[in-house]
Amino acid sequence: MKLYNFTELRAIAKERKFQAIGSFNLHCLEMLPAFFKAAKETNSPLMIQISTGTAQFLGYELIVDSIKSLSKTLDVPACLHLDHCSNIDDIKKAIDTGFSSVMYDGSHLPLEENIANTKIVIEYAHPRNVTVEGELGAIGGSEDGKAVAESDIAFTTPEEVQAFVDGTNVDMLAISIGTVHGSYTAKTNIQHELLNRITQLTKTPLVLHGGTGVSDEDMRLVVASGIEKVNVGTEMNVQWVGNVQKTCAEGKVDDSVRKFLIPANNAVQEVLKQKIQLFQ
Ligand SMILES: [Zn+2]
Question: What GO terms in the biological process aspect are recorded for it (predicted)?
């Protein structure tokens, strides 16, 4: 079974009456079956994203092979996306190994440099049928352990969106409109008016990062306003670790390892199902 790029997966999602695609961070290989079960139960295609750190930890090949195998066995169309990466060599490695979508994050660079580097990635990715996500603006919180200072958070400006999409021909664009990476204790304050101004400027699919901190009500609103990909990462991590902490504290060392993991995977499956239903 082939992996689908974002544009292909989006077409399948639309056929199945989903307005947006959730892109869910895989934090460890053990949680992967839970992702697929949730997609199967909701008749949704599945977009899985992974950080460069986790990709290096697990091995790029193992991830590609595992996702292809489950996609075929369960008959769930899947896309494998490399999340936030600013190293072009790592991006090329992911593409060469079989990832079907990548994100080049040049949001920390001046606009011209961000455009130039995103174009380099696109020139490598598009002939290989791989979609590319770019980013404009600075999203708060932390990404792969690196914290963004409060003073560095910057909302995406509509003027830059125009220049960026015209200059790159990017497949999807991550924007900063108030969400925060890693937020799970409080809900974030979304700039709906800014989102509406940006959606009127471009047909390029827009991406919302930090989906964990978005209330269900805001999630429905942003999807109705035109957000087409929503990244959800922290919530699965929190549920998984929280459940494993509990089962490990209660269990014995000679209990089968899987007994510690089953409640964690069940919780992750519920997170995905609940989010996916908001996109219908
Ligand atoms: Zn992100």
Answer: carbohydrate metabolic process
Q: Which CATH number fits domain 6-278: 3.30.930.10, 3.30.300.20, 3.20.20.70, 2.40.30.170?
A: 3.20.20.70
Give the distance (Å) from ligand 1 centre to CA of residue 83: 7
Mean pLDDT per block of 10 residues along the chain (280 residues) reads 95 97 97 98 98 97 98 98 97 98 96 97 98 93 72 87 95 94 83 95 95 92 95 96 97 96 98 95
Q: Which residues are catalytic?
A: 83
Q: Ligand 1 mean position to 148 CA, how many Å?
A: 11
Q: Which of 64, 76, 83 is nearest to 230 (CA)?
A: 83
Residue 150: predicted pLDDT: 74
Say how many Å lie between the CA of residue 188 and the centre of ligand 1: 14
Element spanning 242, H or E = helix 234-250
8-state DSSP, 189:
-
Residue 54 amino acid letter: T
Binding residues: 84, 105, 135, 181-182, 209-212, 231-234
